[in-house]
Design goal:
Layout (H helix, E strand, L loop, with lengths): L7 E4 L15 E3 L6 E8 L4 E6 L5 E5 L3 E6 L2 E2 L18 E6 L3 H4 L1 E9 L6 E11 L2 E10 L16 E3 L5 E5 L24 E5 L21 E4 L3 E7 L6 E6 L5 E6 L36 E3 L5 E6 L12 E5 L4 E8 L2 E8 L5 E7 L5 E6 L7 E7 L2
Parallel strand pairs: 1-23
Antiparallel strand pairs: 2-3, 3-26, 4-5, 5-6, 6-7, 8-9, 9-10, 10-11, 12-13, 13-14, 14-15, 16-17, 17-18, 18-19, 20-21, 21-22, 22-23, 24-25, 25-26
Length: 390
């Protein structure tokens, strides 16, 4: 059982973004080590969920209603990419993550996660397709994964859906617990039952096949793609570029968002242990915060920040931030910057507050930090980047 380290919190102060075009203006922010400006890269998007950077400078952006968009030379192209699979864009579902194959420059393959509608039109499952991206369109679209969700829990939320390739070419991805109720016999909850994909991190080959050394391969009644289980709704997933460590953030209920270090075959406790409470009433959900055989988070947030995209910085533009973990927050409209000492969080700083609901945070090829924002306040929904200020 892992031990939760104490964390030091340092608050950063940044003014809210104004939506002014990049070529006209930018906003300045301060932090402990780097001052930065917030520059708009593209606006006019609808519910952007994820970003991917192509060789040559283009950016792909998923829009949750079901469109894949291209940002080219600082402009959002009006025509969406053709060939995107049909999605069920209800609740939290739709077109979600997009990642490039590690050999994209030569094979042009990319991967998209989405809420795949059931044939009866009632509900959807977390699914992944791979496709070849050429001439601004998807070709040879192939479905390589569909989650096994239990029939009783086919709602419109908690699809998980973050993806990340490791250095060996394995594709890791998350599947949420689909809002299965956390009451009664907590140990009978679907997230505690690895015969399905509720509340799991998974690992597959780039063609969808199962690695022979996955932790549950060959065990009867367990989904062989599962790498870890007992999660709630992991919507942040990143692999450390130097150590190869697998990090994930997941939504707690009211309080209790978690940062987890993912280990093969481990149980991360939902809903038996945790730090959140029931919405509204504030009544207890869990049997406690720790239990033998269940992994504790490396870090947690109370109150919740509604964790989203996750990134580990390795660029040259912000040298004092190398090795830091950046976690997007929707409820706090912020980014949490976590300073690490090995696998321990030793300090936290809040960047870009009240900027809008942060859906994704990525390091660009230029070393700048890119943020996908969906706004509920009437401000433009947009992509911005953080650039250093001398």
């Amino acid at each position: 059982m892992s031990r939760i380290p104490m964390t030091l919190v340092a608050a950063g102060l940044v003014a809210a973004a104004s939506g002014v075009a990049a070529q006209d203006s930018s906003e300045l922010g301060r932090s402990t080590y780097h001052d930065f400006r917030i520059v708009t890269v593209a606006d006019g998007l609808v519910n952007p969920w994820s970003m991917a950077f192509l060789p040559g400078g283009d950016m792909l952006v998923t829009e949750r209603p079901g469109r894949l968009r291209i940002v080219r030379d600082g402009e959002l192209l009006s025509a969406p990419v053709e060939g995107v699979p049909a999605v069920l864009a209800r609740g939290q579902g739709g077109l979600l993550d997009v990642v490039l194959h590690p050999d994209f420059a030569s094979n042009r393959m990319l991967y998209i996660s989405f809420s795949r509608p059931y044939p009866d039109g009632e509900g959807a499952a977390t699914a992944i397709v791979r496709a070849r991206f050429e001439n601004d369109a998807l070709h040879d679209v192939e479905e390589i994964f569909v989650a096994n969700h239990l029939e009783d829990f086919r709602g419109r939320g908690h699809f998980g859906s973050r993806m990340a390739f490791d250095a060996e070419g394995y594709l890791f991805f998350s599947s949420g617990e689909r809002q299965a109720p956390s009451r009664g016999d907590l140990e009978a909850h679907p997230a505690q039952d690895p015969s399905n994909h509720h509340g799991t991190i998974n690992r597959i080959h780039d063609d969808g096949s199962i690695p022979d050394d996955n932790p549950f391969v060959g065990q009867d009644g367990i989904e062989p793609s599962i790498y870890s289980f007992g999660h709630r709704n992991p919507q942040g997933l990143a692999i450390h570029p130097e150590t190869g460590a697998i990090w994930s953030t997941e939504h707690g209920p009211q309080g209790g968002d978690e940062l987890n270090l993912i280990q093969p075959g481990m149980n991360y406790g939902w809903p038996v242990v945790g730090y959140g409470v029931n919405y509204g009433s504030g009544s207890a959900i869990h049997e406690g915060t720790m239990r033998e055989g269940m992994e504790s988070p490396v870090h947690f947030w109370v109150p919740s920040i509604a964790t989203s995209g996750l990134m580990i910085y390795s660029g040259d533009q912000f040298p004092a931030w190398r090795g830091n973990i950046f976690a997007g927050g929707m409820a706090g409209e912020q980014i949490a910057r976590l300073t690490m000492d090995g696998n321990m969080v030793v300090a936290e700083e809040t960047l870009v507050q009240r900027i809008g609901r942060v859906r994704d945070v990525r390091q660009g090829p230029d070393g700048f930090i890119y943020i996908a924002i969906e706004s509920r306040s009437g401000d433009p929904t947009r992509i911005v980047r953080l650039e250093p200020v001398d």
